[in-house]
Specification:
Blueprint lengths: L1 H26 L11 E2 L5 E2 L22 E9 L2 E12 L3 E11 L3 H9 L7 E14 L11 E12 L1 H7 L13 E17 L2 E14 L7 E18 L2 E8 L19 E9 L4 E9 L2 E2 L2 E2 L3 E9 L1
């Protein structure tokens, strides 16, 4: 009888362990995190490399105030110039995205070209552009159970340039003759995005279109004018495979400087970009791209390329 009692106790103990383990597994939070898309623009909002999407980055859950942050580091080769970008975003209530970007533009041959043309040493090899972004989701995708309603966001990008004012001062205010007014400004954006789940041979197609009001010259790297100019921007993205996204982006430039300094500051051109993103995990994305950007100050950037590593916590 003692043996039977011992065996019974052992059996009951094992059953209790199994039940306890099952309950513990059932209570574990389900990892329902979506893929880490979209990635970060170089200006620090969710989108492609140079244009936004209306989808917010790493949104908070329905019952949460704070989402988890996302960070990215980007490098862009621009011919004789280069760009480094460090970006971070945070989501609130699933409806608001705040972001920050620190962009450093290496001026390449521009300081030498200025010195040769004017005998003035601007004593700088780069300028910095800082972005403070806020975007709000004003229309949810498929609102009112209408499958054709896109997601719509409205945003503001507060920009400040560290360096361009000093350069203009050393040049005796020469940039003022082009239309330069100050080192800071605000871009306003309105972006709509719609996913068509089977539009690309049975695979998802994501289409975005937006309007931007800006005073910036070359995104703000050459400063800001006193006049707003409207421009169009948009992108198309496909997901032909589970872990790959390919995209085309277009960003119109309005050429806010009304004149040029031959050989030093030329007219802006609209930007075209092609992206390939590999979804490394539910948290990380690696992006490579190629850009046709036209004139950038004194040189062309028609064979631009970039890499970005983005991580969502």
């Amino acid at each position: 009888m003692a043996a039977i009692h011992a065996n019974t106790s052992a059996t009951m103990f094992c059953v209790a362990l199994i039940i306890t383990a099952s309950i513990a597994r059932a209570e574990e939070p389900v990892d329902d995190k979506k893929p880490p898309l979209p990635f970060h623009t170089i200006e620090g909002v969710g989108g492609g490399a140079i244009t936004p999407m209306a989808y917010l980055v790493n949104p908070a859950g329905e019952d949460d105030i704070f989402g988890k942050p996302a960070v990215a580091a980007s490098y862009v080769g621009l011919g004789s110039k280069n760009l480094d970008a460090l970006t971070i975003t945070e989501n609130l209530w699933g409806r608001v995205e705040v972001g920050f970007a620190a962009d450093r533009l290496g001026l390449g041959t521009l300081p030498t070209a200025i010195q040769q043309a004017t005998a003035i040493d601007i004593e700088r090899s780069d300028v910095w552009l800082y972005h403070f972004n806020v975007r709000g989701l004003v229309v949810k995708e498929n609102a009112d159970d209408n499958p054709w309603v896109p997601a719509v966001t409205a945003g503001a990008d507060f920009k400040t340039n560290e360096g361009i004012r000093d350069i203009n001062t050393k040049l005796g205010g020469a940039l003022n003759n082009l239309g330069y007014a100050r080192e800071n400004g605000v871009d306003f954006t309105l972006t709509a995005t719609k996913t068509l789940p089977k539009a690309f041979f049975g695979k998802p197609l994501i289409a975005s279109a937006g309007l931007r009001e800006s005073e910036a010259a070359d995104l703000g790297f050459l400063g800001f004018t006193n006049d707003y100019h409207p421009s169009f921007e948009g992108n198309l993205a496909i997901l032909p495979f589970d872990k790959w996204l390919f995209a085309y982006e277009f960003r119109q430039h309005s050429n806010p400087f009304g004149s040029e300094i031959p050989g030093l500051i030329g007219a802006e051109n609209s930007w075209n970009a092609f992206d390939a993103a590999y979804i490394m995990s539910k948290h990380a994305t690696l992006v490579a791209g190629y850009g046709i950007f036209g004139n950038l100050a004194n040189t062309e950037a028609n064979s631009a390329w970039w890499l970005q590593l983005k991580y969502e916590f």
